[in-house]
Design goal:
Shape: elongated
Order of helices and strands: EEEHHHHH
Helix content: 40-55%
Low-confidence stretches: none
Distance between the termini: 29 Å
Radius of gyration: 14 Å
Number of helices: 5
Strand order of the largest sheet: 1-2-3
Length: 81
């Protein structure tokens, strides 16, 4: 899981920021609890770290790509199937 920055908000609450999208430079910032941050630092799957987030948000923390750019880049792959 790719995390560009972590900021402590208060005890047990943290703000994490994804890396910028390689295509459009957008990023996502979320609040998570300490247990989730620990899981992320241990290399746990993004689905376990961010279970309530959308697939597009989770993808930002895996590949860095935002949903719009992901769809545009891989649209040809969908058409070939």
């Amino acid at each position: 899981m790719l995390i560009q920055s972590v900021t402590k908000i208060e005890e047990g609450r943290y703000k994490i920021t994804s890396p910028p999208c390689p295509e459009c430079s957008t990023y996502v910032t979320l609040e998570i609890d300490g247990a989730s941050l620990f899981l992320a630092n241990q290399g746990e799957l993004v689905q376990k770290v961010l279970p309530n987030e959308t697939q597009q948000v989770r993808e930002k923390f895996v590949s860095g790509y935002c949903g719009v750019c992901w769809d545009r880049i891989f649209a040809d792959d969908k058409e070939e199937e």
